[in-house]
Amino acid sequence: MNDQRLRLDLTALADEVTSVDLRDRTLRTSRRLGIQRAVATSAAALVLIAAATGTALAIRPNQSPNPLPADTPSVTASPSPTRSPSPTPSTSTSEVPGAPPSGGSSADTSAGQFGKLFYGPAEVTGAETSNLRSWRPGSNPVRLLALPEIAFKGNVGVSSDGQRVAWVDNSNDLFVSDADGSDKHLLRSDVDPYCITAVWSPDGRQLLFRELKATGGSGRFGVLDTRSAEKTVRWWSSEPAACHALWSADGQTIAMNTDTGVTLYGTDGTKRRVLPGFSPDGWRTNDVVSLSPDGSRIALLRHKAVGDAGDVARDLRVNVVLDTRSGKQVTLPLGGRTVRQVYFQSDGSTVVRVQAGSGYAVLLVDEDGKKVSETAEPASLKDMQILAAVG
């Protein structure tokens, strides 16, 4: 009796425990299914809302943006991991060699760009030869051919494409070679090494020079065709009392220093006009440096009339840019700094060298007089001067 009673009690207890366990499992499973259904229902609702919104936008009149193409990548609504934003690539010239000083602007190639600049020693050093150098902002200076000091002092000329160099040596011989010194050959003897520099025509074919008379002194002006087999010369019919010629990029104008100022000539030596504003007892200039492509502006060193006319050797410093018709000064965006040199480029832009701390910087200025960019010169060019801006 007692054994039978014990068996019945144990059976009842087992049934109760199993019932509780199954109920708990059922409740937990029910919760998981409920959560999954809730998530699925919410997602479906979001899809329906998005579809309805898209339909409403599609049929709404006067919509702003056009619908995206069908192959446009979709953007998911799920949150992405937090991370630092990727840096935006910079176009500032401060990220290339020869970076501009603080405040320099980046280049705007639509308004012009730096060509190649050619440099020679700024002062007479006493060395027999020195090397021509070239530099394009954003790259490193390049060492080129060695030239006699007389060439740097008075007459070296670089062609408009930067490929060839012409100069007169101590024997008054006119030479031409490639910029690296190769393909050197004699063009003509008895050439004035000081009064007229080796001035290239814009097409890089002709050279303006002045001959030396057998009896001494300067003689005729001539334009030599460097590519003709006979190296033919077209002689000017006049002999202007002038030196230090510049040839405009449009090929129409040659500017030269006269006794006190500047005169503009045609390419045949015909006198055109005198630059206003110069007189024996007022403003004077001994050195012209650069002429704009159309001959309308000129960069030069201007000073008050004091003492003699100065050394016959050219001086490539610049302190003013003038309009060649009115004689009025052209304003440059110097930012309060001192201008040292100015060169017009064939695209109408201007390279302006300014004092920047203990060194120099070059500015690129567009035709409207607005600064486009600025780059600091390498320290290795500190004791040199710009001889030409080409390309």
Q: What's the helix and strand layout?
A:
Elements: H1 2-59, E1 116-121, E2 129-135, E3 142-148, H2 149-155, E4 157-158, E5 164-168, E6 174-178, E7 185-188, E8 199-200, E9 206-212, E10 218-225, E11 233-235, E12 243-247, E13 254-257, E14 262-265, E15 271-274, E16 283-291, E17 297-304, E18 320-323, E19 339-344, E20 350-356, E21 359-365, E22 371-376, E23 384-390
Antiparallel strand pairs: 1-2, 1-23, 2-3, 4-5, 5-6, 6-7, 8-9, 9-10, 10-11, 12-13, 13-14, 14-15, 16-17, 17-18, 19-20, 20-21, 21-22
Percentage of β-strand residues: 25-35%
The tally of domains stands at 2
For the biggest β-sheet, the strand order reads 3-2-1-23
Q: How far from one another are the termini? A: 121 Å
Instruction: Profile the largest sheet.
Output: 4 strands, antiparallel
Mean pLDDT: 78
CA radius of gyration is 39 Å
Order of helices and strands: HEEEHEEEEEEEEEEEEEEEEEEEE
CATH topology (level 3) name of the largest domain: Neuraminidase
The CATH homologous superfamily of the largest domain is termed TolB, C-terminal domain
Contiguous low-pLDDT stretches (5 residues minimum) are: 10-110
Overall, the morphology is globular
Structural class: alpha+beta
Amount of helix:
10-25%
CATH architecture of the largest domain: 6 Propeller
CATH class label of the largest domain: Mainly Beta
Region (Disordered): 59-112
Transmembrane segments: 38-59
Keywords: Membrane, Transmembrane, Transmembrane helix
Organism: Micromonospora parastrephiae
